[in-house]
Here is the input.
Amino acid sequence: MPQESTSENISSDYDMELILINSSNRVSLASMNDCTGCGLCAKRCPAGCISMRRGIGGFEWPSIDESKCMGCGECVRSCPALSPGSCSRPSVAFAACSNDDRILGQSTSGGATTSIARAFFERGGVVYGAASDGAEVEHIRVDSDAGLSRIRGSKYSQSTIKYIYDRVAKDLSNEVPSCFIGTPCQVDAVRRFASGMRADSCLWTVDLICGGVGAPGDVSDCLRAILPDSEGP
Ligand SMILES: Cc1cc2nc3c(=O)[nH]c(=O)nc-3n(C[C@H](O)[C@H](O)[C@H](O)COP(=O)(O)OP(=O)(O)OC[C@H]3O[C@@H](n4cnc5c(N)ncnc54)[C@H](O)[C@@H]3O)c2cc1C
Ligand code: SF4
Ligand code: SF4
Here is the structure.
């Protein structure tokens, strides 16, 4: 069971007691409506007692094993949905479009992903992007042109990033120029995770213009209706 919340056992600059423990004396993470499924709480939990499971619609959702929870509040403090960062409007905007018709045909918009990725590969760097396997979408690490086709194209279903944190940490510790491309909420989570890990010099991030990701369960149902043999979440 979680420890009782007191000002002594929660070391924080902010008034965490208000959000750490709810009226049922349980750790209170972001609501299903607000949670982006980034998995940062699970990654940060020192007791390893948070696992990401499929919630409503198949969206990723944290589940806490309360028998192991120490009530430290790290999950709450690290959650981007509970403490949103500040945003600023870009001061300059550029538009770009690939001059390679083949790449353009394989991309959803102007093919910027391919051009950005190639710039990283030329410098010995890597790119993280969303790849799909049936209805399952997951961020993968790509270090050469050969893997680029997997991350080209928009997948309108939530992409899991929980497995990518360790790879980002390893690349940054090896000073590998790294570029994470994803939805703004994923970028926020990755930047928070990488804060202090040479992120200033080695990590670049690209936010997509995103109107929201689709529910993996719905995408899976649609795929099954069209292709009865397909697997999904
Ligand atoms: C979920 C989603 C919602 C979008 N909503 C809008 C919108 O409202 N308005 C609009 O103008 N454009 C929208 N887009 C398109 C998007 O803004 C970019 O224009 C497009 O993904 C980039 O295309 P590209 O030609 O540069 O590269 P592409 O080769 O098409 O590259 C696709 C890039 O998107 C990433 N990606 C693909 N699927 C996902 C996913 N599920 N989660 C995270 N990253 C993913 C890949 O990592 C890759 O970097 C959306 C895209 C997605 C994935
Ligand atoms: S981070 Fe701390 S409070 Fe949150 S689930 Fe893990 S042990 Fe419990
Ligand atoms: S850290 Fe991410 S996965 Fe965990 S509750 Fe917050 S938004 Fe959801």
The pocket of iron/sulfur cluster (ligand 3) is lined by residues 29-30, 35-41, 62, 78-81 (CB under 6 Å). The two ends are 30 Å apart (CA to CA). The chain has two domains: 19-78, 101-226.
